[in-house]
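Note to self: keep these together.
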Amino acid sequence: MKALLFEHSNTRFAAARVASMVAHGAGVGVGPLRLVEMDQPALPGSDWQLVRPALAGICGSDLATLDSRSSRYFESLVSFPFVPGHEVVGHLDDTMATRVVVEPVLGCATRKIAPPCPACASGDIGGCQRVAFGHLRPGLQTGYCVDTGGGWSGAFVAHDSQVHVVPEDLSDEAAVMVEPAACAVHAALAGGAGDGDTVVVLGAGTLGLCIVAALRRLSLPGTLVSVAKHPTQRRLAAELGADVVVEPGEVRRAVRRLTRSLAVGPAHGPGRLTGGADVVLDCVGSAGTLADSLAVVRPRGRVVLVGMPGKCNLDLAPLWQREVSLVGAYAYGREVLAPPVGSRRTFDLAFELVRDAGLGRLVSARYPLERFEEAVAHAAAAGRRDSVKVVFDLQAGARRPVRRVP
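Structure:
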């Protein structure tokens, strides 16, 4: 089968990082990703399924990996060479009539670890403490593990506990959005926004837009502010439920007006507000967006780091002096909702969000694996190119494309 294989090569890692300084996404042309012919992975046990992908998304963490900009923290949590791809809709090999999406975290159940760690026992698989142990080689998720393969290929394997059947009324474009929607649901609820709160979402790529939709449907913010750089992002943010949509350079001024706060210090740089937003969700994870988050959040407010960060130089004095809570939001598992709903699986909520918010419309372009360099370049420049989600089409030619790709 054809697959995109990411190998371990310090020389190519370095070349990719240098290339990415010229243009985001340029690392793919010189890095360790290559198109290969390889055998499909073997089933690790009788409780595993072979999945043949139909669509597989390119996400921000994939781009960071290809540009060699992901944190070295992850080095011991992946195994090489791996096939990327964790946002996937596909078909079970034994029927080909059953469409599924895969919950990619490789927790204790997939690793045959018994008893499960406390996180997995409670259903919080995103917090699994055993991702480098068990009968699988290390890998946080499908798409970062040698033994499972990933969605950027003709086939990969998934444990029964990872498989979710796709309802017939959802298109493939909608289904491939379920995994990022699950991340958004988890992050939106991690913010803990109360009724009437002012909530700011920094970044309006796939994750930021999904979080806007999740906040509007799972909480009752008084004012929901989306910070979006490009015209298509601004339009979609408003359609998905943002009350106020501003460009990045306007966020401090906008929050000051909305919360009737006073500005302390310069508008850009180390300045801050006397009050501010109750909750800020940072979907970028850069030093600049974290500085903006700390500048606009109120004292004792909450900043949720959703976008995957790397190393950054950041002044944490405002976090200390204003007693701000800085929390991370990674993956999914089970979510605790207000009574009488109680606890629900994140992916179940994500299916509902995708359908209710029409998130399938965020899929903007499809490429075959053979054009992977073009696909990555498009994904890296999605906002500038009036796109949101770029996907690989593993059945290219079988369906009419969403958008004509030049």
